[in-house]
Amino acid sequence: xxxxxxxxxxxxxxNFFLIAGPCVVESKxxxxxxxxxxxxxxxxxxxPYVFKASYRKANRSRLDSFTGIGDAEALSVLSSVKNxxxxxxxxxxxxxxxxxxxxxxxxxxxxxxxxCRQTSLLEAAAATGKVVNIKKGQFLSHGAMKxxxxxxxxxxxxxxxxxxxxxSFGYSDLVVDFVGLNEMTSFCNAVVLDCTHSLQKPNQxxxxxxxxxxxxxxxxxxxxxxxxxxxxxxxxxxxxxxLSDGANMLQLDQLEPLLEKLVKLRSALRSNP
Length: 273
Prior knowledge:
By secondary structure, the protein is α/β, with parallel strands linked by helices. It has one domain: Alpha-Beta Barrel (TIM Barrel), CATH 3.20.20.70. Helix content is 36%, strand content 18%. The chain contains 9 helices and 13 strands. Helix 2 (28-44) runs parallel beside helix 3 (71-85) and helix 8 packs parallel to helix 9 (255-271). The protein starts with a helix and ends with a helix. The relative contact order is 0.15. The mean pLDDT is 92.
């Protein structure tokens, strides 16, 4: 494992690690507000923290959906967050040529679920030497993610994480198989549960993705109980006005009571293996 993955997944505190932030870079002020609040909470609860925000949203339901403030400006914001708060940062990439550009600003490159089998994208991400976090496709078994992981490893980069975000069920539901989550931990050094996107309601007739954020706590607790190394939670001070994925983000002021419960749960499980 890389020093970063080891630092995240094998924290001296024994806690899970947290990947959290707004869905997309809406502004520098927003990113600073979220990063400062979450970082302070993670310091207080001894939780390793990675700030997350997409510098560009490429997979949108409608042509008029918000995609970003501009690549160069958004990547600059991520660099600023990383340097100001001294925390690792992650963002997603969608095309091969984005890998090297994004890698100059972030520590972890995230591969979207729909692109987890895209060989050239995985190779490009691997070539940067950065940690590569592959989200499991909604159409794949957990065991099949070993092949996606191995594409990165066989390209010369052993620094891989896998993220569970549910499997498609019908047209507009996702289901998380926690046994499958446990299966991925058997062959990957760091496995994350995406507590927000697993609760999405995709393919809505309105063209705007829905969600069930009221179940984020349940999802997170189940993830900890199933042995996830990390949790992924998108959060925003006011999800109702967020420019992307507001329907399934956790309101920022609800994060602390959730983390308090999760730390207690993790501690109880470690005390009674």
